[in-house]
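Students often ask why we bother encoding 3D structure as a string. The short answer is that it lets us treat folding as translation between two languages. Here is a chain of 324 residues written in the first language.
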Amino acid sequence: MKLSIVIPVYNEEENLPLLYQAIQKAMANVETPWEAVLVDDGSRDDSLTVLEELARQDPEHLRVVGLRRNFGQTAALAAGIDHSVGEIIVLMDADMQNDPADIPMMLEKIREGYDLVSGWRIKREDAFVTRTLPSRVANALISAVTGVRLHDYGCTLKAYRREVLTGFRLYGEMHRFIPVYANSVGAKIIELPVHHHPRKFGKAKYGLERIIKVVLDLFTVKFLSSYANKPIYIFGGAGLAFVGVSFVALAYLAIRRLFYTVSPFTSPLFPVAIMVGILGFQSLLMGLIAEMLMRTYHESQGKPTYTIRRITNIQPEAPALQRK
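And here it is in the second language, the structure alphabet:
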């Protein structure tokens, strides 16, 4: 199995030579063939020049992808994954806070049968108020909403089997949610403590404003992971709830009219109940439309609604496999 180390780079020219040396040292005693795919995400310093010079010095191991502008960390990771060839993919940062020395340990876990090895920065070397505390809150929130219990979603250092990274595209700040997508296709996940070092050169690229992006992306991830294949469950569930509330309110007004001769039209509850009922029916219709779109998506592209870990004693010429 070949290993690809994918690293997004943005304004890290001083860290890059140190990073290259650290990767070489970490991989010196690893028998697995490897490559490092470094993606310059529109850096404003000389990061791309440094990367290209390092690639000329070591064409066997280093690959460089230069993006036209700054697209963000998630897009840079996606570009690196697309241009890598390894069956195992390790993602990490270029700021030298992740330690390449942890990669061999993660590879061992992959060989033991795990599909995803997630790094956990137990002793995090960052500012507590602006980085560590918000990260802990976000980790707890993501774990509670998605059901995938990890201590450190924000740690970029993770190792994956390539197959758990296929079948979806990364947008926004979605890279931190890859474990959720991987879990949805049945990936076997383990979390390991990894080293974390204080930043020596350059500046941190993210602050408290990232929390808003994470929360918004969490809504998308929850929907895609839980309801993408059956959207009627969320739209229909909400629709039935609205219709139920409307029915109860109208029944209350009808009983009050029959037994107390109070006109329902004089109560503000009447128009509210009608509006809630209409909203419920609209939600049910949206769920049906979403179901039609999902079926069109799967059937037009021949995408299965399942994922396979391994196959035993089934010939490749089986009719179902031929259709794909």
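Translate back mentally: Residues 318-324 have pLDDT under 50 and may be disordered. Keep this in mind for the problem set.
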